[in-house]
Amino acid sequence: MRANYIYNFSYVSNENESYFTYLVNDPSIISGFVMDISGQIQQLSWKESAKQWNLFWSQPRTQCEVYAFCGPFGICNQQSLPFCSCLKGFQVTSSDSWNLSDFSAGCARKTSLQCGNDSLANGKRDKFWEMPNMKLPDHPQTVAVGSSSECESTCLNNCFCTAYAYGDHCSIWIGDLLNLQQLTSADTNGGTLYLKLAASELSSKEITVGIVLVRDFQL
After folding, report:
1. Helix-strand-coil percent breakdown of the chain, rounded to 5?
2. Which of 93, 184, 179 is closest to 140 using CA atoms?
3. How close are the terminal C-alpha atoms of the chain, in Å?
4. Where in the chain are the domains?
5. Which residues contact 99 (CB under 8 A, 6 or more apart)?
6. pTM of the predicted model, to two decimals?
7. Which stretches of 68-218 are DSSP H helices?
8. What are the residue boundaries of the Apple domain, all occurrences included (predicted)?
9. How many CA atoms does the CB half-sphere of 44 hold within 13 Å?
10. Among residues of the chain, what percentage have pLDDT more than 90?
11. pLDDT of residue 174
């Protein structure tokens, strides 16, 4: 919206009304703004020679910056196609929507959490899955604790806590995780997220061990 742009912008705000308008400087330019299912607002211009619309400008600049683009418990990765995938221990909520590139319904947990009830799942408590180099989810809650182990324990003992992170302070997340993004190894702005999962989601494969007993007979 700088001066001498393709459009002349005008914003009016007073005690009676507030509105925004724009007029095209060059009437030969066919252009418009669109917001589609991607969540981005896009400015398109018509290229007559190619008989197609060209993307001129978009905001947010990348899909992973669109709020809740991958839905609850979805993880966005700008380096992969499709951009969205489900966190470990979760599965797609709506396959039909997902196949149409509508990821907003997100993912659902495969196995319910133990949630402090040691009588279930063979008495195994919930565990945490380490996820390094992540753009952490929105809406964290800060907890006053003195160590990472205390932070972990706080989340583990709260049935509504779904993840935690410990850096300069302890952050926990209650309920859905939104806007989680996998960063590249070159991006140093990430943190490590610890995702709470049912113990069965993290258990190693069972190994059956056979024991042969040899009895020493005396003649």
Report:
1. 10, 35, 55
2. 179
3. 101
4. 7-59, 65-201
5. none
6. 0.71
7. 95-99, 148-156
8. 115-198
9. 15
10. 50
11. 97
